[in-house]
Design brief:
two-stranded antiparallel sheet; Myeloperoxidase, subunit C; single chain
Length: 588
Amino acid sequence: MRKQSTFGKVVEFFDQRFRWHTFPTVLGVLALIGVRNTLRARNLFSTTKGSGTKAPVPAPPRHLVARTTDGSYNDLDHPAMGMAGTRFGRNVPLELTKPEVPPRLFTPNPRTISETLLLRHEFKPATTLNVLAAAWLQFETRDWFSHGTDMEHPIRVPRPAGDDWPTDPMEWPSTPKDHTNHATDGSATFLNTETHWWDASQIYGSVPEFEQAIRTGVGGRVRIREDGLIDVDPALLGTSGGRDGWWVGLELMHTLFMREHNAICDRLAASYSSWTDDQLFEKARLINAALIAKIHTVEWTPAILGHPVLHIAMRANWWGLAEERVHNLVGRLSSSDLISGIPGSPTDHHGVPYAMTEEFVAVYRMHPLIPDDYEIRDAVTGAVTENLQFTDLHGLSSRPVLERASASNVFFSLGVANPGALRLHNNPRFMHRLERADGHLIDLAAIDVLRSRERGVPRYNDFRRLMHMAPVRSFDELGDDPETVAQLREVYDDNLEDVDLAVGMLGEQLPRGFGFSDTAFRIFVLMASRRLKSDRFFGVDFNAKVYTPEGMAWIDGNDMSSVIVRHFPELAPAVRGVRNAFAPWPLP
């Protein structure tokens, strides 16, 4: 842990008393820089000691200019950093990350929390977003992390009195253990089955078998059927969740960016006719992954965090304070990421080996975004053609809906509809009694609570203190109405310190324009920059020599709307005039 700067201390003082998001815009931007610098100095912790993980021998020189399947050799001096199968890092001191054990693990009972505080009774919409924003987030998290699940050693949760769950205890999957960890002090580490890098591994996989299954072996292209839908088993593509997490929104995102991969291959082949299948595939992956990262940074994030400071800050992450117009005219003005953006600036791990963190996973539990009910509409007339529930779009039911209604109509239907707001009492109904593909019944909302306890993520008020925020002083700060406040008091036996992170983040008052909590945002502002700044392919190797001039132009010249229109030109009228593809589209 590095020393906090004087600037950081000043910002922390004023932020705790007045909150950065209430400052005038310019001061808010400066405050946010101070918050990020403090978090970089005090909230990055490595878990790699004693892991013994080694990277495979590469096939030089391809790993120098292309992403490897397993994420190795991104950092050439530490080739195992960030590769699949390595440990999650932490954003809180390691001595404070010991997993909870019974009876604390079950206090209060996660099922009681799920039914009393999280379950949706009436849909609360997030009116500034569309459902594509929800699908996009799931698409992205499948790139970033997965712990896998262990049903051979389930967590046996006592069934609350009066609950109608069919078994007692309730048996839900546990997180697989890290068998390389031989610590005797009660600390625990966990492994990421995916690469830690922002490399579109949700499309391309983190193991050779996955990668080979999606490739055609010709022209660098991936498998798309003649009807334009993906020609891959969803159970394979959905490695972090398998068919249990697959649904029509996720299939649309995979379809869109697998088609985009093939379009990039065609562009590259036109300029480099001698390139092999491998060369075209690897370069197209590099370009496609960067375009996805750009869309998330400058479109999805400002859509869900609609605050003027964030609009400046996230665009500055990509283009710097010099902004996009200067970038397009003259390129970088400076090596400084503050002036000219992180992509193309010097790579920096800020003194700690790069890894996704358990706290990052915890704050990205945003299941309320998913609606239970859907209207399928005609993209030309806007007329409703079907009323469906999530279960009609889930798992292997996804493909028949796309074949029946057409991918463009479903895309339009999600584009004009609102997702759920990230608030208490708004978790999807279907998740509270969800049957997995293996037949096991789970309550996903209860498991969200259980996972943070199981993995040693601090509870809400402790988490805020560790993020250098003031703790909440009253349950009144965590409810939108007196009934919810009373429920919080009852469930947590009037003990604020017991409130779970997931519950507190959904209950706290949101900054203006924010779609999720300021508590979650503290991890976001740290890690959103870090996963760009630590990645060689967004740092020193983000240039025309590695990406090709055509690749750099492709990244610069495209956004979510242009990608949608390229592959679904019939949707051009729907997105015309829409400034952000993740905002609600107008009905005809």
